[in-house]
Amino acid sequence: MKTLALVLGAGGARGIAHIHALKAFDDLGLKPSMISGTSIGALIGAAYAAGMSGADIQTYVQDSFNDRARLITQALKVRPSSVKSFFADGGLRLGEFNLETVLSVFLPPVIPATFEELQIPFHAVATDFYAEKSTVFSAGPLHRPLAASAAIPAVFLPVRIGDAYYIDGSATNPCPLDTVQRRADEVIAIDVSGGTKDGVLTRPTKMDVIYASSQMMQQSIVALSAREFPRTALIRPSVGTYRALDFLKVSDILEETADLRDEVKTAIDRLLTRPPG
Questions:
Q1: What is the CA radius of gyration of the chain?
Q2: CA 207 to CA 220: how far, in whole Å?
Q3: What are φ and ψ of residue 90, in 5° steps?
């Protein structure tokens, strides 16, 4: 049987839609031969590679964000444990949090300490800030590369790994379909980058413009990558009305992107039955 790689793109809360792609694989009794992800795609991809089912991940995410009392309780655990650690994390600041600390509280406990302990080969993509390029992590300690991959600028502090500082992988490779080419017979990629909101055409606000412009750039990067690898099945669920931090809208996102599950199953069938190219 052909091997099929799965790529899960960046998009913050919009990436909750990735769960439908995982459930499509589960419905068919299949597992990707490898998974590559950026940002939220890396977090969800790591959970799936660790052995969680799509349904398991959906339950975990909904339990984490739909129960506000539980969410507040978990969030309080993120506070620095001492003044010393507070200043070690960057001291007084507005809006930036240490994502490594956040993930230590919110990541499913099933996610292991290293890449090698995962059940499916997995790649996490982050952006090396000073080198101005993406870096693919696939071996060694797992949690810090996950934090690096999802370190949204101005929301989370850059993550240091070795002598480099990393920010969200979406800055350079928001849907890393290039990382799995020639490593599998076929590739299916889910792009959840946003864009402008759907609806009535009105003059956008300053924040609308700032937010949407970065999303447009991400879409352009993905489009160029897809053009380079035309055999990749690139699927874009309708997530444009949601922003990266809309995690309290988990149920709405899942409901509005439910068609993705059947769309992915159709794509998998086509990829696995078409002649090699």
A1: 18
A2: 20
A3: 130, -5
Burial class of residue 147 in the structure, from the number of CB atoms within 10 Å of its CB (0-12 exposed, 13-18 middle, 19+ buried): buried
**What one-character-per-residue DSSP string does the chain give?**
---EEEEE---GGGGGGHHHHHHHHHHTT---SEEEEETHHHHHHHHHHTT--HHHHHHHHHHHHH-HHHHHHHHHTTS-SSHHHHHHTTSS-SS-B-HHHHHHHHS-TTS-SBGGGSSS-EEEEEEETTTTEEEEE-SSB-HHHHHHHT--TTTB--EEETTEEEEEGGGT-SS-GGGGTTTSSEEEEE-----SPSSS--PPPHHHHHHHHHHHHHHHHHHHHHHH-TTSEEE--S-TT--TT-GGGHHHHHHHTTTHHHHHHHHHHHHHHSPP-
Pairing of strands 233-235, 159-161: unpaired
Q: What does the block give as tokens for 150?
A: 């999802």
- Determine if the pTM surpasses 0.85: yes
How many residues make up the chain in this entry?
277
Supply 2's token pair.
């052909």
What is d(CA 71, CA 103) in angstroms, rounded to the nearest whole number? 13
Is the pLDDT at 71 greater than 80? The verdict is no
Q: Are strands 122-128 and 133-137 parallel, antiparallel or unpaired?
A: antiparallel
pLDDT in tens, 151-207: 998 888 999 999 999 999 999 999 999 999 999 999 999 999 877 665 567 887 787
Q: What would the mean pLDDT of 273-277 be, rounded to a whole number?
A: 85
**Cα(176)–Cα(8) distance, integer angstroms:** 8
Phi-psi region of 162 (alpha: psi -120 to 50; beta: other; left: phi over 0): left
